[in-house]
Amino acid sequence: MATAYLAVRLVSEFAAEVRASLTKPGQRELPSKYLYDEVGSALFETICVLPEYGLTRADARLLEKYSGEIVGRLPSPIRVAELGSGSGKKTRWILEALSRRQKTYYYPIEISPSALAACAKELGQIDLVSVVGHEQPYLEGLRTVAEGRGEQDHLLVLFLGSTIGNFDRDAGDEFLQEMRAILRPGDALLLGTDLEKSVELQLLAYNDPAGVTAAFNLNLLARINRELGADFDLAGFQHEARWSSAERRIEMHLRSTRRQTVHVPAANLRFMLDEDETIWTESSHKYKAEEIAGMAARTGFRCDGQWIDREWPFAQNLLIAE
Ligand SMILES: C[S@@+](CC[C@H](N)C(=O)[O-])C[C@H]1O[C@@H](n2cnc3c(N)ncnc32)[C@H](O)[C@@H]1O
């Protein structure tokens, strides 16, 4: 009964957010978090191994090389919460380093049930590591974990893969401030940030020739068809990645290739798209290594360490709650 109620609540939230974002004055949008149903999470895993998407490999290289040093800077005892863990593959390095000094509780926080299950499978077998997944939005999940810890326990929050880049810059600061309010002084945040590089490389990373990122983006419309009974004709849309030099971000859009009407029954919505009109589905902001310390200072942290991958400019930043 409780599960059925939750499922109905989630569908009505999805429908309400789809309606609000598609009817926004000006640019139509869809919230990027809905990219991650079971199909989307599987496609994202494939994106992570594409030759053009160097981001995940850079993140992993840094964790493999520096996890010992990062863990050496953390207080003890400490529990680990990961926001949007995905499959959690890269997190193994941190958990193995921590488990060499203490029994470790690891809490992946995810809205994608299939990603959460993959993560529990991936990391559930490490000696002295106990995995407890939370199928919740980021801060709701973090609050649950923070409230459940003992007086002496510190927290390490992992926010890897440059997922912070999905937030507009002001919203990113606000998110870090809200996260800080849940933490205690001395708690840590390991924040992965993709750094600016040539526009050509950045565009290729979000528009691979094999079309996996296009499928990931289009699946959002397919998901709305499946879950909200909509009639998006996927053949009438094209994936588009744009670089905004003013905002220093990649934007993913879905371009309507003709004038068309779409009906989303569960959202009580019918609307018309012009030829070449786009729906904006995701942003990935890029950073300069030197701007992270300022971001930390504005949001109640100090930057205690920064490790940079030179092959694919990407920074791992260790922030400590003040
Ligand atoms: C860009 S992927 C990154 C995955 C992984 N951390 C990595 O670095 O490869 C973002 C992940 O966050 C999850 N996610 C997106 N929005 C979320 C939210 N509001 N609350 C919890 N999880 C969310 C998605 O399901 C997805 O697995």
Helix-strand layout with pairing:
Blueprint: H1 2-22, E1 28-29, H2 38-47, H3 54-72, E2 78-83, H4 92-99, E3 104-110, H5 113-123, E4 129-131, E5 134-135, H6 138-147, E6 154-159, H7 169-182, E7 188-194, H8 199-205, H9 212-228, E8 237-244, E9 249-256, E10 260-264, E11 269-273, E12 278-285, H10 292-298, E13 301-309, E14 314-321
Parallel strand pairs: 1-12, 2-3, 2-6, 3-4, 3-5, 6-7
Antiparallel strand pairs: 7-14, 8-9, 9-12, 10-11, 13-14
The structure holds S-adenosylmethionine (SAM).
Core attributes:
39% helix, four-stranded mixed beta sheet, binds S-adenosylmethionine, 322 residues, 26% strand, eight-stranded mixed beta sheet, alpha/beta, Rossmann fold, 14 strands, 10 helices, single chain
Provide a brief overview of the structure.
The chain has ten helices and 14 strands.
Can you characterise this structure?
With 322 residues, the protein is of the alpha/beta class. It is 39% helix and 26% strand. The protein has a domain at 54-197 and 287-321: Rossmann fold. The strands form 3 sheets. Strands 2, 3, 4, 5, 6, 7, 13 and 14 form an 8-stranded mixed beta sheet that branches. The chain has a 4-stranded mixed beta sheet with strand order 1-12-9-8. Strands 10-11 form a two-stranded antiparallel sheet. Helix 2 (38-47) packs antiparallel against helix 9 and helix 3 (54-72) packs parallel to helix 4. The longest helix is centred in the first third of the chain and has 21 residues, at 2-22. The chain is globular and about 60 Å long. The mean pLDDT is 97. Bound molecules: S-adenosylmethionine (SAM). S-adenosylmethionine (SAM) binds next to helix 2 and strand 3.
